[in-house]
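Predict fold of Hydrolase; 302 aa.
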Amino acid sequence: MRVAAIDCGTNSIRLLVADVEGGRLTDVARRMEIVRLGEGVDRTGRLSEAALARTKKALEVYAAEIESSGASRVRMCATSASRDADNAQEFRDMVRGVLGVDPEVITGDEEARLSFAGAVAGLAAEQPYLIVDIGGGSTEFVTGGADVSGAISMDIGCVRMTERHLHGDPPAPSEIVAAERDIRAAVDVALAAVPAQDARTLVGLAGTVTTVVALAQGLPAYDPARIHHARVTYDQVAAVTESLLAMPVAERLALPVMHPGRADVIGGGALILRIIMERAGQSSVIASEHDILDGIAYKLVV
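Predicted 3D structure, encoded as tokens:
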């Protein structure tokens, strides 16, 4: 069966068209656009007209690709920004008009479970896992082995932390301290809510983690095959985080693995990852290129 899954987050919108057979996904197409749907939501409580227009433009391209692919089932999930916004109905109406299906504005708990389902498929590492999905507006924490044992979503993400605290270019030390305090408080709540102390392997999902891991590896270009299931140490993550926070955006843009739409918020995302590793006592993290998008696709046929 050919299915199409769309994940619309605070920072990016992504498409996966895949054939599903015997519980395995075979990619037909993967796409990602930075649309920054959640721009300003933490401050205004609303999705801006500009952000909605950017998202609509990307979605129109995805809708055309889905139609030409012959996908028989389509599911779109929308996460942190569209949960928080006062004008979320406007977003839902736009999606229905372009895609022909309603977006599912999923809860943080469902987001966490979908991320887990996508991340653990094909993962050969010591269980139980602590899965962290660092998004633009929120971060999901999920623990489990064959099944989920605990899940929680916290309102810390690379866009939200940058807009809230990291205003300088590069951010001032006092701004970094304020962000660390905010992140640390949220991480401690999350780790207390799920049985994170039992986790043997930390797995990180989404663009922040994969970009940090690519930088830690010194890759000459973004290479998903070399990033997927790569393990890097806490010391490597800490060094990359310190370097990113010391760079102005123009220098980050020049890094060969950096997506242009991520350069201004990657420092906040790296800081979240570093603090999670500290507070969870994890000496390394495994990156996964498979995440909530894969989970959405899996759930279309099970």
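The chain has a mean pLDDT of 92.
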